[in-house]
Design goal:
alpha+beta, three-stranded mixed β-sheet, 9 helices, 23% strand
């Protein structure tokens, strides 16, 4: 058995959905073919996408975990076995009589590919031909990272996604798809955009599934987003913090605001600007995270200023504070 999906994402089986998502985002930034300089970036990205598509879906994850725990229960052949060592047609053998059970879609897949799919008996295939039932295609999920200014102004972007799907043998593969996506302003971190009919192709004339694109904002040294709230690191001079002066701040929305600092403000202290976060139905807040920065003393005059400052605070013991 080769590397499994948990190993592909570098997580354990008890990883939470949030940990799975974080692991995927980290690897996607590293291996996305459009930006990565890594060897075999596209091949690695395909493996990462397939692993995330399975482990981020509760039902698929449950089925996959069952496969890990009961590898002997699966019918495997060179034609049907995926690169990770598992039978992705989800074709089960229960006991010695080799009964076939419908476990999340195998019957659907069998009906789609007919006798060419292999492994079934003629009576079952004839029943499938007579019924000719239609099934809606599976919904699919993807995520993108965008700049914070889009939260305030919206944008229409062409994005290229790598969508996990199944080929004619039931094996996972990745399809590259370029779509024009309208991103409205006010999207929260983790919120989804639904693109009707852009998911997996329907079976026997059934409707296509939908594609859900999850929105994430790029974390920077200055900006972090949680839901509709924005945490914005703002540099402050020592005298501004000590004296509680008024400072001008250029917000992520592109507007300038005047903020009165509390006296003796400290690094890491947060000031909330109500409703200045992402302008969703319920507006988020903008939290200014204060970062006190000190000027370098390059000239003699500047060094003397620091010396006077030290003499004014002789009782201050920073290691004992």
């Amino acid at each position: 058995m080769t590397k499994n999906y948990y190993e592909t994402l570098g997580i354990t089986r008890n990883a939470t959905p949030d940990q799975i998502k974080k692991a995927y985002r980290k690897l996607a930034r590293k291996y996305h073919p459009d930006v990565s300089k890594e060897v075999n970036a596209e091949e690695n990205m395909q493996a990462i996408n397939v692993a995330y598509d399975t482990l981020s879906n509760e039902q698929k994850k449950t089925e996959y975990d069952f496969q890990l725990d009961h590898p002997e229960a699966f019918y495997q052949s060179d034609q049907h076995t995926g690169t990770d060592g598992f039978d992705h047609t989800q074709y089960y053998r229960q006991g010695s009589n080799q009964q076939h059970s419908d476990f999340s879609g195998f019957e659907d897949l069998f009906g789609r590919f007919g006798s060419g799919f292999g492994g079934g008996n003629h009576q079952y295939q004839n029943q499938q031909r007579q019924q000719q039932r239609s099934y809606k295609g599976e919904d699919q999920h993807a995520s993108i990272e965008i700049d914070i200014d889009i939260a305030f102004h919206g944008s229409t972007q062409n994005i290229t996604l790598q969508i996990p799907t199944l080929n004619a043998y039931g094996e996972p593969e990745v399809q590259r798809k370029t779509l024009q996506v309208k991103i409205p302003k006010g999207m929260k971190e983790g919120q989804q955009i639904r693109l009707a009919g852009q998911g997996q192709t329907g079976i026997n004339g059934g409707k296509n599934g939908d594609l859900y694109i999850e929105i994430h904002y790029k974390d920077t040294e200055q900006i972090r987003v949680e839901g509709a709230d924005i945490y914005y690191t703002t540099n402050v001079a020592p005298w501004e913090a000590a004296l509680g002066q008024s400072i001008e701040v250029l917000t992520p929305a592109g507007s300038k605001v005047q903020v009165n600092l509390p006296k003796n403000a400290k690094t890491g202290q947060q000031l909330r600007l109500k409703d200045k976060g992402i302008p969703s139905k319920t507006p988020g807040h903008l939290f200014l995270v204060l970062n006190i920065v000190y000027p370098t003393a390059q000239t003699e005059h500047e060094q003397q200023a620091y010396q006077a400052f030290a003499e004014a605070f002789l009782k201050f013991k920073p290691r004992n504070a």
